[in-house]
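Contributing new records

If you add data, match the layout below exactly. Sequence lines come first and carry their own label; structure lines follow with theirs. Keep one chain per record. Anything else will be rejected by the validation script.
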Amino acid sequence: MYEGGYRVPALVNWPGQLEPRKVLQPMHVVDWFPTLMKLTAAKLSTPLSLDGEDVWPWLTGDAPMRDRTFYIVWGGGRAREALRHGGLKILRNRPKAPWELYDLAADPYEKTNLAAKQPEVLERLRQVYQRERAADPR
């Protein structure tokens, strides 16, 4: 649930279409489907509700990068949970464990748990997590 397991580099190469550049925008594998659909002008016979979004404008530098929200629940009844909201992240490694809070911009290796020092930020992010979880059809 920590960044070492989820912060994975990716490489995109398309000579003549993409200029070499470094993109630090967090993306997810689910972003590739809508991106490739748009690039190929493909149409679906049945509309789908997609979690991902077209990331081509970020890859080309045509749009400013922005903060995004990602959440994950892993492991069924022994669920581990996390939410990344902009540069902040909350997580817990079992259902009744206390939530941890990290500022990824200042602490990308998640060494300092800020939950006790910033309970109002933790609670705000917990509410965002609950909204994301409630909206998930699973």
